[in-house]
Design brief:
The protein is mainly alpha-helical. Helices cover about 75% and strands about 0% of the residues.
Length: about 200
């Protein structure tokens, strides 16, 4: 029997993740039954669980995949850009990403075992945010009166607040200026004009 190529395996894994993302977003973790996962991915139970040990491993891989994608955006453009893309629906899977993010938040609150497994995987976004802020500080763009660790926590809290806002069905159309304010609040402010007060 010929060996399956790595490209084929990678494509199949991507197919499973993309279909599962839609399924988890639509039905939640508990409602994403094996039958629904089969329908969403177009694959059999055996094909799905050949790549992932169980449903929780699949969900963790999906959440980690989203975290890596967000970390890539953060590295290039910052965490506020992740928020802007969420608002403008320009991200690749905006509604599905939000659904996955909400499921992660819910399970972190209610499932200690999941919390422990997620903690091992959730550092990418924080690390990417911190590295970007450190680069901005070195370039003289970032305010220097607040520790980078605190600024990172601040931006992550804003992201969580935005996710909660959208999860409640609240509109996001008018939040662009709020994100402008958040972005401005972490920038370094130079003395205004000569003779101005400091």
């Amino acid at each position: 029997m010929p060996r399956v190529s790595q490209d084929h395996l990678d494509a199949r894994r991507r197919q499973i993740l993309d279909g599962s993302r839609v399924c988890f977003a639509r039905h939640g973790y508990e409602g994403a039954t094996v039958r629904r996962l089969e329908e969403a991915t177009g694959l059999s139970r055996g094909a799905i669980f050949h790549h992932f040990r169980d449903k929780e491993s699949l969900f963790l891989a999906l959440a980690e995949d989203d975290a890596v994608r967000m970390a890539d955006i953060v590295a290039e453009q910052g965490l506020v850009q992740v928020m802007r893309e969420l608002l403008t629906n320009r991200s690749e899977h905006p509604a599905d990403w939000l659904g996955t993010r909400l499921e992660v938040s819910r399970r972190l609150r209610t499932d200690p075992e999941f919390r422990a497994r997620w903690a091992e995987r959730s550092h990418q976004l924080t690390a990417a945010t911190r590295r970007r802020l450190e680069r901005q500080r070195e370039a003289g763009i970032l305010r220097d009166d607040v520790d980078v660790v605190i600024l990172t926590a601040y931006l992550e809290l804003v992201l969580e607040g935005l996710v909660s806002h959208l999860a409640m069905g609240q509109p996001g159309d008018d939040l662009g200026p709020v994100l402008d304010l958040v972005e401005e609040s972490v920038r370094r402010h130079r003395a205004h004009a000569a003779g101005g007060t400091r």
